[in-house]
Amino acid sequence: MQSAPDRHEYPAHWEADVVLRDGGTARIRPITVDDAERLVSFYEQVSDESKYYRFFAPYPRLSAKDVHRFTHHDFVDRVGLAATIGGEFIATVRYDRIGAEGLPASAPADEAEVAFLVQDAHQGRGVASALLEHIAAVARERGIRRFAAEVLPANSKMIKVFTDAGYTQKRSFEDGVVRLEFDLEPTDRSLAVQYAREQRAEARSVQRLLMPGSVAVIGAGRTPGGVGRSVLGNIRDAGFTGGLYAVNRALPEEFKDLDGVPAYRSVRDIEGPVDLAVVAVPADHVPEVVTECGEHGVQGLVVISAGYAESGPEGRERQRELVRHARAYGMRIIGPNAFGIINTSDGVRLNASLAPEMPRPGRIGLFAQSGAIGIALLSRLHRRGGGVTGVTGVSTFVSSGNRADVSGNDVLQYWYDDPETDVVLMYLESIGNPRKFTRLARRTAAAKPLVVVQGARHGGAAPQGHAVRATRLPHATVSALLRQAGVIRVDTITELVDAGLLLARQPLPAGPRVAILGNSESLGLLTYDACLSEGLRPLAPLDLTTGATAEDFHAALSRVLADDACDAVVVTAIPAIGESSVGDAMLAEALRSAAAEVPGKPVLVVHVELGGLAEALSAAASTAPQAGSVEPGAAGGAHPFRPAERLPTAGAAAAPDDVGLIPAYPAAERAVRALGEAVKYAQWRRDAAEPGKVPEYEDIDEKGAAQLIDGLLARGQGLTLGTEETCELLGKYGIGVHRALPALSPDDAAAAADALGYPVALKATAPHLRHRADLGGVRLDLADEEQLRRAYAELTELFGKPQELRPVVQGMAPRGVDTVVRAVIDPAAGAVLSFGLAGAASQLLGDTAHRIVPVTDREATSLVRSIRTAPLLFGWRGSTPVDTPALEELLLRVSRLVDDHPEVVAVTLEPVVVAQHGVSVLGASVRLAPPPARDDLGPRTLPVY
Q1: If DSSP codes are grouped into helix, strand and coil, which group holds residue 791?
Q2: pTM of this prediction?
Q3: Is the pLDDT assigned to residue 195 strictly greater than 70?
Q4: According to the model, what pLDDT value does residue 938 have?
Q5: Which of 556, 625, 674, 750 is positioned for an S-S bond with 498, CB 3.0–4.6 A?
Q6: Pick the residue with more confidence: 46 or 800?
Q7: Which residues does 11 contact at the CB level (< 8 Å), separation at least 6?
Q8: Sheet strands side by side (includes 111-118)
Q9: pLDDT score for 660
């Protein structure tokens, strides 16, 4: 695309889609010689004032020389980027490298002048801010470290773009011009600004989909049935508050409506604006629909049509083209192959999905990549009787299908500050950007509970239609990292709903102490055992006997809630037989009133086939029957609180607020498991309020380590360091490694022992024997040469020649607990620090804990204590406690090493002997490689799947 003299080919990797402040999208790409006409047309649409601000003088039109200058770039010293919508320019930015005198220059000059021009119609949409992020990233890639910009004082909008970016800058005023200079190295503030802008833009883009003012269903058939007609009926029946239109190009001219909905042959024929289009036409016809929607100004699409990536390679390419096509018009897509979206807000009442009925309004946000799982979740949350009983409501629901564009990350951005959503439930089959998801999850979980179940976790590959980057981490590790970010990780849909019901209705527990009361001693004991299994601290169950009345339950619950010795209460209830049976509604009212009198602690009910109790517990207190209005023990006939057979409709009577309603569970294990997750989450919230810090160590030589790494990498793209190089690099971070000298003969072993000093250890380092003391390849505490030679003879007799064994001699370290410290950089999840005890038993049990790098001091402390075998470090069964503070410091130093130098892609310290005083690293390996790309540190971009 560039002429021959240009120094670099077209940098296609600079192309990106971005979300703007108002939720629309734009394409950012390099400007080339082919853009001359676009540039002239763009400039003609810019106001005279904006032109004056750009050129400091009246400049009505661009000369041929200007057009040539602004379209011919070498992509090194001169770079221009354009933001486009529909293929046309809406804004431009360029930089020119300059030297110390302010004249054009080439490398090694590291400063450039930068200038913007934004079409007036698109000012205020955050276009310039997005362009600044991208041109700064390009400049850093080309060795430019600083930008300079000259701005007229009256151009306050552009000055604000620069000053709000968060970079370290200097401002001066001379000759009537404001000169701004700023370093391009990202700072904590610039990243915070970038993340805040990203959140606002992506949340707004989802809000435009979930809160449209008007909806067109494209593909609504003339005859009942079919996907499009069904969705049209669902939107109409839900009482959508905005404009609704049916579109079908096969409609005869005389057709003016479908089931009372205005009907058109094309979206272009609709006179008013259309905010959202639901597309339900065959995949072959979707491109034409997208073009019509884009030209009509539609803001977003829900594509229910199938036949995309889930159908194979050809469908995957069709899906990518769909996304490119829609984004070119500034539209975002949910789908394709989507189940749809729901918003129960009174001001919207949108059911643009295949769900035949609108769920009850509530405080739970629900996301599912699978339509089938979405149906199951809606059904579980809203049906009465069977499974998780009781009723709670949904604020918004998104089923993303192939999630070619809008993903769980985008919806999390929306729910983060959505006042209508208190709890987030997500079913994920893949995570397209784990680093970003972890970052967003941590922020969301600090404000509201986030419960996740991940499907396809053992399948080894993402489901059809989901293009995601590969991770080398096992599922257990990914799960641990999500928990570190505050995610409540559960394994099944049932557990997802169980936890959601509790978190949506009850306060978080202040601790793990659980009171148990009820009218069944056996059920109380089962609950007690379940609490112990979940790591809770149950109090002795209080048995009220089977003759307990509603008043007895009320009094008992009031007492335990007022007791400072408990943090949560589980009420167990079984039906009684005969006239003394407690009425369901009376018992429910007794429990609700007691909980209301002493608020602040969660209350759960475990019931056994009490159909009416679960229903009554879920009813609003204001509509609950009064005592005496129900006949206790009534037999036959329809029970006034019997569960309904269908989902409640949108207009059904509902509790004004879910908060305070008591969730009921059909089994003690399910109730206690949900409570256990709430306890762990509450503890995480408390810990997150004081996250700790990444400590500084004066003896760390970061610059020296960088120089060493650069020199080593100059040898090749990736390499495992030798022993001396490993020790040198680790030494730069204050990590000492015990010397191990090779011993290819008994005489070599004796000489090595003399150099190190007795006592020594003799080890076989062959791959099949390394770190396997249980196989007999290690001899310890060899006090003299005689013992050493005898041990050498034993090893060679048992395992073969020295060349096969690769024996080494090492000085003895103080006795302690053998542990393993590892750090790896995963291409998807980022840098991960792992810790566990050494030995086959820990490996077989998978007893390893993980943390995302960088690790804080508090996280290092929790990492050491989070493995199941941690008691061995703290004096288990009378053993001597070891120096865990020294171990934590070692973990922090390794974390610093891989965080400071992403070229360090793997570190293994094994074994690390933790003694009563200090730690000894007896073995170490380090691998270097060019670091994987960090898309979480670059400019904002929409992913391309």
Answers
A1: helix
A2: 0.84
A3: yes
A4: 73
A5: 674
A6: 46
A7: 30, 75, 138
A8: 16-19, 25-30, 78-85, 88-98, 111-118, 146-151, 177-183, 169-174
A9: 64
Q: What is the pLDDT of residues 520-566, one digit of tens each?
A: 999 999 999 999 999 999 999 999 998 899 999 999 999 999 999 99
- Report how far apart, in Å, the C-alpha atoms of 919 and of each of 63, 377, 408, 875, 922 are: 72, 50, 43, 16, 10
Buried b (16+ CB within 10 A) or exposed e, 640-656: bbebeeebbebeeebbe
Q: Are 779 and 759 in contact (CB under 8 A)?
A: no
Q: Name residue 927's beta-bridge partners.
A: 720, 906
Cα angle at 382 between 379 and 383, to 5 degrees? Answer: 75
- Asked if omega into 759 is within 30° of 0 (cis), the reply is yes
Taking all residues of the chain, what is their mean pLDDT, rounded to a whole number? Answer: 86
Q: What is the pLDDT of residue 637?
A: 36
Report the SS3 class of residue 478. helix
Cα(869)–Cα(849) distance, integer angstroms: 11
Cβ-contact 517, 605 below 8 angstroms: no
Alpha-carbon distances, residue 685 vs 176, 504, 681, 814 (angstroms) = 52, 16, 6, 39
Give the C-alpha separation, 233 to 539, whole Å: 53
CA distance 148 to 172: 11
SS3 208: helix
Q: Which two tokens stand for residue 783?
A: 């006090």
Instruction: Read off the pLDDT of residues 210-230 as tens digits, 9 standing for 90 and up.
Output: 999 999 999 998 888 889 999
Cα dist from 943 to 16, 203, 398, whole Å: 9, 16, 19
In the structure encoding, which two tokens stand for residue 447, read together? 């404000």
> Concatenated DSSP letters for 681-702?
HHHHHHHHTS-------TT--H
Distance CA 551, CA 570 (A): 17
Tokens of 122: 């698109």
What tokens does 424 get? Answer: 């987030």
**DSSP calls for 268-333:** GG-SS---EEEE-S-GGGHHHHHHHHHHHT--EEEE----SGGG-HHHHHHHHHHHHHHHHTT-EE
8 Å CB contact between 159 and 132: no
Give the rounded distance of the alpha carbon of 44 from its chain centre.
43
Three-state secondary structure call for residue 16: strand
Residues with Cβ < 8 Å from 452, sequence gap 6 or more? 425, 426, 427, 428, 441, 482, 487, 488, 489, 490, 496
For position 808, what pLDDT does the model report? 87
Q: Which two tokens stand for residue 280?
A: 């339900």
What's the pLDDT score for residue 389? 35
Secondary structure percentages of the chain, helix, strand, coil, to 5: 35, 20, 40
Residue found by looking up tokens 């599922």 in the block: 475
Tokens 């992506």: give the residue. Answer: 202
* Number of neighbours of residue 123 by Cβ within 10 angstroms: 16
